[in-house]
Amino acid sequence: MGMTMAEKVLARASGRREVKPGEYVTAKVDQVMSQEAFAEVYRVLKEEGVERVWDPNKIAILLDHYVPAPTIAHAEVHKLIREGVKKLGIESWHDMRAGICHQIMGEKGHIIPGELILGTDSHSTTYGAFGAAGSGIGVSEMAYVLATGELWMRVPSTIKFVIKGDLPERVTSKDIILFIAGKYTTEVAQYKAVEFKGPTVERMSIASRMTMANMGVEIGAKFAFFEADQKTLDYLLQYVREEAKKRVGIFKADPDARYEQVYEIDVSRLEPQVAFPHDVGNVRPISAVGDMKVNQAFLGSCTNGRFEDLEIAAAILKGKKVHPETRLLVFPASWEIYLEALREEILETLIEAGAVVCNPGCGPCFGGHMGLLAAGERCIASSNRNFKGRMGSTEAEVYLGSPATVAASAIAGRIVDPRQSKR
Amino acid sequence: MTFIKGKVWKFGDNVNTDVMAPGFAFNAPWEELKRVILHIHPKFTQEAKPGDVIVAGKNWGCGSSREQAPANLKRLGIGCVVAESFGRIYFRNSVALAFPSIVCLGISEAFDEGDELELELESARVRNITKGDELKGEPLSKDMLAIIAKGGIIPALKERLKIKK
Questions:
Q1: Which class in CATH covers the domain with range B3-164?
Q2: Quick check: A143 and A7 in contact, CB under 8 A?
Q3: Which of A172, A239, A364, B135 has the fewest other C-beta atoms within 10 Å?
């Protein structure tokens, strides 16, 4: 019997020839990622007297949630992490000089198709864009993994989204994943793995695939896979270390793999989509949004802070001005993207339009710092969650949209259709 | 057999981890933090007592991997959460912290706020003592129950490291 991508990964990781949905396995983890949560992981390891981790070469640590440290308490957290990284001999340490964890995992060569990658962040599903089984865990489980290299896993069933049709201009992969969350609910993939397939997905850039895999967790997914194709390999081989290159190859499901459900979506007439507060599944097409004034527009995050996101925003904002009663905040997802956008004069365009360009990092996405909302304020955001209180006050509202929708809305001072602000 | 008994607080669908452990209160002292845990239910934040339990709809704990979500509920003294379904990372974290989460279809219909609930953890049998009904939830796997019996995944790790030594 053929296996899905999730089944293949978990069979290999647990040393079995095959596994079936519902089975419990002990999986050997191929790679882990941790950010500020590592402070707590390290504290637990110290307390338990664990002085050596299972494999310091399979661990990547960086800072992205609170950079630079906004308070003394955060500075102490960062200090503890730096101590831990040194004591445990972790080589892949990027401090605050890299960017958002999920972008960095690719750019620093830590993602290999078909491998099991666990991170202390729910959006670790992003690695599925490269055919890797990425998933989020908490700090106690991470401490267990660092000490032992393994973790219990339940083999998930898999559902498949087959996506076809050419996306209309200024409609992006973000709109597809929001549409899925709205139409099929944020529970459609609960306890399950997802595979995104079809001609639209094959044509999609790596960055666009990452946006959808990233938000896989918002529909409940344990893993959110795209096949690792030639495009994936071309991207990864730029970054993967020499000795790991032989592990990078095409990775896909068996043709006779079994799916619990298959959904077909034609995106050729898809409108830009907006998730209303306070739920990612509360989605409306842009034509049904109504008159929504925005105080803040947030372009960035692990969902949509990549070069193509800044590029489409710059194309919309070129020669225009951000509305005087709206603040536009821009956070490139990594230093590499930051530099490229600088060299390509994209940052110049954004700044001239009135954007505040900040350093790579998570920014205000999760309510930590750098652009929180006051009571009664409204933000249109390219990030992934609009939960009550997520970006500051519990009396504020967060609306989710594509980078194009964020840019067009920043100009208009209200949520508008990016297709209507064409020159 | 482990029995968990308590007065029910009811919640709806898609209650996310951010409202159990708000980002804006990550570094707040406990006295301040405990007043915003599950701030979407103001009466809960004011009146919940150790030993109370939670009955919820679908997708309880969707969202972030922050372990503080189940950790905060445990620290409040909540005995267990019985829901139609759970966000999967929250579910894993609750096992890791030995804080019982039980999936039970039909649970929302079967309980009103203030009813008395009794959960038999190993069999996942849920009784509404007030109304006299009984429901059958999904039992946790052997491995999960073993982690919970040890007090969580860190005590389990401690035991494993001791054996190795």
A1: alpha beta
A2: no
A3: A239
The chain B residue lying nearest A188, using CA atoms, is: B59
Q: The domain containing residue A18 runs over which residues?
A: 5-247+255-265
Evaluate if residue B1 carries a pLDDT over 90: no
Has residue A62 got a pLDDT over 60? yes
Statement to judge: residues A243 and A331 lie in one domain: no
Side-chain half-sphere exposure of B101, counting CA atoms within 13 A: 28
Say how many residues make up chain A: 423
* Final residue of a structural domain among A265, A296, A325: A265
Contact status, residue A275 vs residue A400, Cβ threshold 8 Å: yes
- Give me the residue spans of the domains in chain B: 3-164
A122, A152, A187: residue with CB nearest B89? A122
| CATH code for the domain in which residue A406 is found | 3.30.499.10
Q: What is the model's pTM?
A: 0.97
Mutation pick from B18, B41, B73 vs chain A, by most beta carbons of A within 10 Å, is B18
Chain B residues near any Cβ of chain A (below 8 Å) = 14, 16, 18-19, 22-24, 26-27, 39-40, 58-59, 62-67, 85, 87-89, 92-93, 96-97, 141, 143-144, 152-154, 156-158, 160-161
Which residues does chain A have within 8 Å of residue B63's beta carbon, measured at their own beta carbons? 122, 385, 387
Which of B40, B64, B140 best probes binding to A when mutated, by most A CB atoms within 10 angstroms?
B64
Burial group, residue B11, by CB count within 10 angstroms (0-12, 13-18, 19+): buried
- Are A119 and A34 contained in the same domain? yes
ipTM given for this complex: 0.96
Residues in chain B: 165
Which of the four pLDDT bands, split at 50, 70 and 90, describes residue A423?
very low
Chain A, chain B: beta-carbon pairs less than 8 Å apart:
121
Burial category of B74 from C-beta neighbours within 10 Å (exposed 0-12, middle 13-18, buried 19 and up): middle
Q: What is the pLDDT of residues B59-73, one digit of tens each?
A: 999 999 999 999 999
Q: Tell if the CB–CB gap between A389 and B19 is shorter than 8 Å.
A: yes
